[in-house]
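User: My collaborator sent over this chain with a note saying "see what the structure looks like." That's all I know about it. Can you take a look?
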Amino acid sequence: MIGARQAAGIARLGRTAAVVFAVVGCASTQFDRALDAQRWSDAAAALNADTSVLDNESTLFRAAMLYSFPNRATYDPMRARELFERLLRQYPAAPTRQSAVDQLSLLYTLQRTADSAAAVKQQLQSAIARLTADTVQMRRSVDSVAVRLRAEQDQTALLRKITTRLENDLQDREAQIRALHDELNHLKAIDLKRPLRTRGGGTAKKPAPR
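Assistant: Without extra context I'll predict from the sequence alone. Here is the result:
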C-alpha cells in the first residue's frame, strides 16, 4: 500500500510523462503505438520482442515509465529502476533527466515502504503464530483443569453421600444405645424395688444405692 504523498508523486510524474510523450512526436514502432493506445501489456510484449528500441533516449524513458505504475499490470519496479538508471548513465543531459531522477527516487521510496511493510507483516504473523500456540496450550490447560474439577466434584458428591449415610447410621446407633440405657435403667429400678429374702424366709429392705 502506498501513502498519499507517493500517490501524488505518481500522479505528478504521470502528467510529466504524458507531456514528454507528446513532445516526442509520432509513434514509429509497435512499442510506441501500443503505449500511445495505453495497451500496456501489448507494449511490454513488443518491448520484450525487440529490445533494440531501448537504444533511443525517449523510448528508454517511456519503457521505464511503463513499468513504474503500481496500478498497471506491467508494474515491475526493479525493471523500471534498471531502465531509469540506464537512462541516467547513457544520457546524463537528457531532457527527461529530472523526471527520471524523481521517478527513480519515488520507486526507491516505494521499495523501502514495501520492505518495511513486509517486515511488519512478518512480525505480525510471528506474533499471531506465537499467540495462537499460547492459546492452544492455555485451552488444553483449561480443559485439563475442567476434567480434574469434574472428577473432584464427582468424588466430593460421592464422599458427601457416604458421609450422610454414615451420619444416619451413627444416629441410629446412638438411638439404640440410648434405648438400651433406658431399658437398663428401668431394669435397675425394678430390681431395687424387689424385697430381699432372708435365710429365715423373711424379707428385708434393700439398701439404697450409694
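A starting point for your reply to your collaborator: The radius of gyration is 52 Å.
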